[in-house]
Design a protein that fits this description.
Shape: globular
Strand content: 15-25%
Number of helices: 7
Structural class: alpha/beta
Oligomer: single chain
Strand order of the largest sheet: 2-1-5-6-7
Helix content: 40-55%
Radius of gyration: 17 Å
Length: about 190
Amino acid sequence: MLSQPLRVAVVCSNNQNRSMEAHAVLSRKGFCVSSYGTGTRVKLPGPTPQQPNVYDFHTTYEQMRQDLLRKDPRLYTRNGLLGLLDRNQRIKPRPERFQSCQDAFDLILTCDEGVYDLVVAELSSREQVTRQPVHVVNVDIADDAEEAIVGALLLGELCQRLRDAEDLDHDIGRLLQDMEQKSGRPFLHTVCFY
């Protein structure tokens, strides 16, 4: 069992669906968790795939919600975006961009390989000051409501196993292999340093 609480970050593209669902699950399980996106702007589905709703990372979830209510409340209720934004604002006020975060974590979980690559590149580009290791782990989670729930539960189980590990650095490889076998999903893993 770890002597310190496991500090966890969950990262997806927009800090809306996958990372926020995992943030909610991990918070309920008592983890010290933060969530982020890696995009340059926040994109939410619009009336057509060619017309997304685009916001900057300083826009609050409530401001996004009000904007969608003005545009087409029936559409955004039916496609679940208003419910998603309601959930998000109960967790934190606005999306956050990973590249702007200076906090240190023990574990960073990413929800698709492109995000994993961006997180690893960002951490690798920073000056290493403390040499504190951070485990970066990816499992691909489709960006839809159902898969976000399944993925969040999977990440919750992984975090519980890692929290219960005798030695995180030593045990993580075996635990990731166990999770791969159980879930049928591949996990990527690397270690970066702060």
